[in-house]
Amino acid sequence: MSNNEIQELAERLQHGLSIAERRMLEDKALHDQDIVVCHTDDTIHYIPANEAIKAL
């Protein structure tokens, strides 16, 4: 694979992951569920999916 092909594949994968994350958050928000978030200080927090969608 050339560098250009690798870059294109990486971009397509990142786009697909972004779509999957958005759909997951929307589904959790629909069911009024929380998500788990790990902050940079290694503390774990639970936040409503609606808040995570706003942060996107």
Report on the architecture of this protein.
There is one protein chain. By secondary structure, this protein is an alpha+beta fold. The protein has one domain. The chain has two helices and two strands. It has a two-stranded antiparallel sheet. Helix 1 (3-30) crosses helix 2. The protein is elongated and about 45 Å long.
Spatially, the strands of the biggest sheet line up as: 1-2
Number of individual domains: 1
What is the CA-atom radius of gyration, in angstroms? 15 Å
Residue-averaged pLDDT: 95
Instruction: Give the helix tally.
Output: 2
Number of strands: 2
Order of H and E elements: HEEH
Helix content: 55-70%
User: What is the oligomeric state here?
Assistant: single chain
Major pleated sheet = 2 strands, antiparallel
Inertia-based shape:
elongated
Fraction in beta strands = 15-25%
Distance between the first and last residues' Cα: 33 Å
Low-confidence stretches: none
Helix/strand structural class:
alpha+beta
Please give a quick description of this structure.
The protein has 56 residues and is an alpha+beta fold.
Notable characteristics:
56 residues, 62% helix
Write the layout of secondary structure elements.
Elements: H1 3-30, E1 34-38, E2 44-48, H2 49-55
Antiparallel strand pairs: 1-2
Helix pairs in contact: 1-2
